[in-house]
Specification:
Two copies of one chain form a homodimer. Chain A is α/β, with parallel strands linked by helices. Chain A has helices at 8-15, 19-27, 36-49, 55-62, 82-94, 108-120, 166-179, 204-218, 233-245, 258-270, 289-292, 304-315; strands at 67-72, 98-103, 125-135, 147-153, 161-164, 186-190, 223-228, 252-255, 280-285, 298-301, 325-328, 332-333. Chain A has a six-stranded parallel sheet with strand order 2-1-3-4-5-11, with helices on both faces. Chain A starts with 7 loop residues before the first helix and ends in a 12-residue tail after the last strand. Chains A and B meet through helix 4, helix 5, strand 2, helix 6 and helix 9 of A and helix 4, helix 5, strand 2, helix 6 and helix 9 of B. Strand 2 of chain A pairs antiparallel with strand 2 (98-103) of chain B, so a sheet runs across the interface. The structure holds a DNA duplex.
Chain lengths: 345, 345
DNA sequence: GGCACTTGCTAATCCGATTTAGCGGAGATC
DNA sequence: GATCTCCGCTAAATCGGATTAGCAAGTGCC
């Protein structure tokens, strides 16, 4: 790549000064005395020649590359992914950093190779991210490095974590139902325990359930039932279908994720029940479909963009990093799937 | 970042040879004679010390950074995004390259800044990507550079393009309908012209329509009608709803994208029509929802992963790049939304 | 034994910046 | 007038590798 770039030596020559002077003038450092005349000559020469510093040469000397590494297990397979990276990108750009994105696919050997590749290229810091909130153990190469854990926790590993505030999200969902008058006939559909197929069950499901139950209890209400299942559309359909077939008549559903809600909608529609007149639905994640459904789905959003942004801002901050856990708020997206409670039949 | 890394000088000292010898031994070059004894001493020393070459120092000298820049207007807002990047990542990793991901948001000034940032860091090549296939004009900084255009075309700009084969996709959709016996009552729903709100209408819509009509014509069939609208769920719902209200009774719908199909499903369901018994639906893109819908949607998939993979493979290939257009096949995902044609009422 | 050639290795330079050490000249001090 | 201090700037070293030029010892040949 590249044509013959203009070097600082070229600029210095043209300005009639030494490379040293050019360097100080261009970097604008004040601890070395440069006359205003010399400074402007250098600046003019640099502008004339269209000079751009070679970041590679610079970072060889300074040990800082203005570069970050983003290591994650999977970057596709939404809901995570896109917006997180975009948030990280935005924050990085604000500080003139570029982002290396990598994906390990969950393979330790691949992970190790990629992390080494990043380290070899002198990244200033590494964001170690997981697509579903869970416990991780970062590779040994990262020990002692400037690392931030995104959407994961690593007890014993000295680095800060940034995760969504799932407990508060559970409370938010509960309050949304309570505010509409729902105090009975509430069912939770989805994964709330550690289920093999849904690794996030460990975390998101558990914490959401905790927050939900806490807020219901405080209001003197409670769940009529909890249905355990995976977090896919088909699971939501199957379980709600079964629930209705068994004769239950829920007034409100709290679904683990929008995909489950999607399935729930299908089952409710087939049973001739309408949302939100017959059944209210509140959900989590705020995927695209939440807005497409009819009626549009009220859901507690995963703050993807904010997670990415915050991670980069913390890691590019000045101070040393303390191993604390930052919980990012999950905002409620009010749409049309929660209706007023009706007196129980 | 970084602790005190082991340098090549350390390795040389430990092996009792000169840095030059260490360099040649480690890089495995054969044009310089190194005895087997010396070579293994160096290798052993490197292994003992856990030596890893400093990629920054290397690229300063070699002008190659084993690094690629990925510049796109938007990386979130599926359908593009995730899988494309993953494909690119996979191909890059196979060749020991790391990927800088950037997002311009469509802003020329931002774009220019990011491209310069990439160039400053000595990227070996740049992939200039667009989320919707359309014509672009890459920034001047990229002229004369090793560039590949992904999902876009730039007449007059000397670089290869990689785009999905939309014409053939249109044929594929048409053939799927014909194979099921559909020859009448076929409607196209979506954008097929250059519509402001759907920039891809320029390309994808136009080409898909061309392929579709060609294949229908060849079979002696034709479209009963074409409905122009944007590419969102609500548009599909509204237009199909209106179509039915006007008394039309389509036997098959060809929707511009799965989101439109999603809306079409909603309208058909409300009208008491079932898919595929009453109406067959074939679509494009293969987004996640295609598999969640009931019945699951038959759709012609955008080859996201393959687009990303192919882009990187081409650009990391040896030869010079010729400005040709590579069209990546779009495979048909057969699911359950196309049923056999019934004799027209 | 002398010359050419190969073998195996090293010294020195380069890549393009940053950074440290230090050098002339002007003005101040005694 | 000699010494001291600033000022403004430059020479040279440095970062960690890759690469070029070349040197000493050994081998082959006549």
């Amino acid at each position: 790549m590249s044509g013959n770039r203009v070097t600082m030596a070229d600029v210095a020559r043209r300005a009639g000064v030494s490379p040293t002077t050019a360097s100080f003038a261009l970097s604008g450092r004040t601890d070395m005395r440069i006359s205003e005349a010399a400074r402007s000559k250098v600046l003019a020469a640099a502008a004339d020649l269209g000079y751009r510093p070679n970041a590679t040469a610079r970072s060889l000397r300074t040990k800082s590359s203005q570069t970050l590494g983003f290591v994650s297990d999977t970057i596709t397979t939404t809901p995570f992914a896109g917006e997180v990276i975009r948030g990280a990108l935005d924050a990085a750009r604000a500080k003139d950093h570029l982002l290396f994105i990598t994906e390990t696919g969950g393979d330790r050997a691949v992970e190790s190779g990629l992390v080494n590749g990043l380290l070899d290229r002198q990244v200033d810091a590494v964001i170690y991210a997981a697509m579903y909130t869970h416990y991780v153990s970062p590779p040994p190469e990262l020990h002692g490095r400037r690392v931030l854990l995104l959407n994961c926790l690593a007890p014993g590993f000295d680095a800060p974590s940034v995760i969504p505030d799932e407990i508060e999200a559970g409370r938010t969902a509960g309050r949304a139902l309570l505010a509409a008058g729902h105090a009975a006939g509430i069912w939770a559909i989805g994964g709330h325990q550690a289920i093999p197929a849904t690794p996030d069950g460990i975390f998101a499901g558990l914490e959401r359930m905790r927050g939900l139950q806490e807020v219901l209890r405080d209001a003197g209400a409670r769940l009529d039932g909890v249905v355990e299942c995976d977090w896919n559309a088909e699971d939501g359909y199957r379980e709600v279908d079964r629930l209705l077939a068994e004769g239950h008549r829920p007034r409100a559903l709290v679904c683990s994720t929008d995909r489950v809600s999607f399935g729930a909608y299908q089952a409710l529609a087939e049973a001739g029940l309408s949302v939100p007149q017959d059944v209210s639905v509140v959900s989590f994640d705020d995927q695209d479909i939440a807005g497409w459904l009819k009626p549009a789905l009220t859901t507690v959003a995963l703050p993807h963009h904010e997670l990415g942004r915050k991670a980069v801002e913390l890691i590019l901050g000045d101070g040393p990093l303390s191993a604390e856990t930052h919980r990012v708020p999950m905002p409620l997206r009010k749409r049309d799937s929660i209706g007023p409670a009706r007196p129980t039949a």
